[in-house]
Design a protein that fits this description.
By secondary structure, the protein is an alpha+beta fold. Helices cover 18% and strands 38% of the residues.
């Protein structure tokens, strides 16, 4: 009993930390324009030998902590493919230090058809695989559903008749999907709702300079994929389309400076950090086939939120030029923050961390911006503790003597349920699931024990019958 309670406490603690992470605002970077995809510099970050002698990387997607990749063994329904998970960050889901992009787990169990495309939906906690081929006979126009934890097959979803699906991407801001298919001998983009029903056919897609298309990824209005140019002798390319206009905007040749290889094929893309694009590819070096990850950092705009709502706050560049639009701050920019308020008890927070005033009256903590930031304000109470009254930090940081009126103001500014209650709700839900799952495991173990006892009794009975027969 004590061991069970200890495990439950550890489990709840992990959930509490995870819940605190989950309620943070999601960064929504904005690519500066099509020019951000021209002349991209790709850095090799991972090289892993493929398992099959003729294996190929086919698709990749990113979950909360992992980069999931399918290695296609062959277009043969009798040969299982390999699904591998690599660490997305230099730490795992429990906060333990790991080598970023190193292998975390691997499963070779099922055939994923060609496995040409893949995307992850955090709302359903499922991975959806675009098959491309239909060697199983009844898979045309279908998707396979993968469990992101076990990397195994769960179910099949039929989407469309008449053509196969080459690529798929979940559009989080719309709660929809973008797919690419080979309809009517050509190739098209189409929008599906969250139940995989057709919403809009965007029409034909230009594959120039290739003859086919690999998996895709979407950032804002931009669709990124790689046209198939193998054996054309023209090198490899990354194509960028406008989703709203269904127009090819950029076709950029991939240059891998300093890497000597005899074969290279880009296959799929995902995002591992705001505006940091990862390309998964098959590369042949010294006659060995590898899965390779390359990354490139795109030119993006980020937001500094909370300044426009407070007239006493202002931003300027390091040369003193005022910032006119704090929602469009170019990646890598450094800013100064000034507070003109005369309130001696007022305190400023950057992303929830208390910021101290420098001697020149400016806050200079916004350096080399690589993500969205939030400026918030609070007041210091008489005990020296701070009372944070911001939307992002709607809970008390002060002493138990804070008044009910101030507490009500804090909750009103939060725009809804305070963050601690959200955390408690999430923890309670997961705790209930954990208890249910432990009970299910115990029942399953008891069922297996009963079956084992029954098999042993049946074996003893048969052996006794055999002994009686011999006698």
């Amino acid at each position: 009993m004590a061991r069970t309670l200890k495990r439950l406490f550890s489990f709840l603690l992990v959930l509490l930390l995870a819940s605190a992470i989950c309620i943070r605002p999601v960064c929504a970077e904005e690519v500066t324009g099509p020019e951000a995809f021209q002349g991209m510099n790709w850095e090799l970050v991972m090289l892993d030998p493929l398992l099959a002698s003729a294996g190929n990387v086919q698709s990749v997607c990113a979950t909360e902590y992992y980069i999931i990749m399918i290695e296609n063994t062959a277009d043969d329904a009798t040969q299982p493919d390999t699904v591998s998970a690599y660490y997305r960050y230099p730490y795992d889901e429990n906060g333990n230090a790991v080598d970023q992009y190193s292998l975390a787990k691997r499963v070779t169990m099922e055939d994923w058809e060609h496995g040409n495309g893949m995307t992850y939906n955090p709302n359903t906690h499922k991975i959806y695989v675009a098959l491309y081929t239909s060697t199983h006979g009844d898979d045309e126009g279908c998707l396979y559903v993968m469990n992101p934890d076990t990397l195994t097959y769960e179910s099949t979803v039929h989407v469309v008749d008449g053509y196969n699906i080459l690529g798929i991407e979940y559009l989080a801001d719309r709660d929809q999907y973008l797919i690419q298919g080979n309809a009517d001998g050509g190739y098209n983009f189409a929008i599906l709702d969250n139940q995989f029903n057709l919403v809009e056919d965007l029409g034909p897609a230009d594959l120039s300079p290739g003859t086919n298309s690999q998996d895709m990824y979407v950032i804002g209005d931009y669709i990124i994929n790689s046209p198939l140019t193998v054996n054309l002798g023209i090198g490899s390319y990354v194509n960028v389309y406008s989703m709203s206009a269904n127009t090819l905007l950029v076709s950029d040749q991939v240059n891998l400076d300093g890497i000597s290889y005899t074969g290279f094929e880009p296959e799929s893309f995902t995002e591992v950090a705001p505006g940091v694009l990862l390309m998964a590819a098959t590369i042949i070096i010294d006659d060995i086939r590898y899965a390779a990850f390359f990354t490139t950092t795109l030119s993006c705009y980020f937001s500094v939120n909370g300044v426009a709502e407070d007239a006493s706050l202002s931003l300027c560049y390091t040369d003193g030029t005022p910032v006119e639009d704090p929602t469009h701050i170019l990646r890598g920019t450094s800013l100064l923050l000034k507070d003109a308020s005369t309130d001696e008890n007022r305190q400023l927070y950057i992303d929830g961390a208390l910021t101290t005033l420098s001697e020149n009256g400016l806050y200079d903590a916004l350096t080399d911006i690589q993500s969205d930031h939030t400026i918030s304000t609070g007041v210091a109470d008489t005990t020296g503790d701070s009372i944070d009254l911001t939307e992002e930090n709607a809970s008390w940081n002060g002493s138990p003597s804070d008044t009910d009126e101030d507490s009500a103001l804090s909750e009103e500014k939060s725009g809804g349920l305070p963050a601690p209650l959200i955390v408690i709700f999430v923890v309670a839900a997961f705790a209930a699931f954990w208890i249910w799952n432990m009970r299910r495991i115990r029942i399953e173990r008891e069922r297996k024990r009963r079956r084992a006892r029954k098999r042993r009794e049946e074996l003893r009975r048969r052996m006794q019958e055999l002994d009686d027969f011999e006698d």
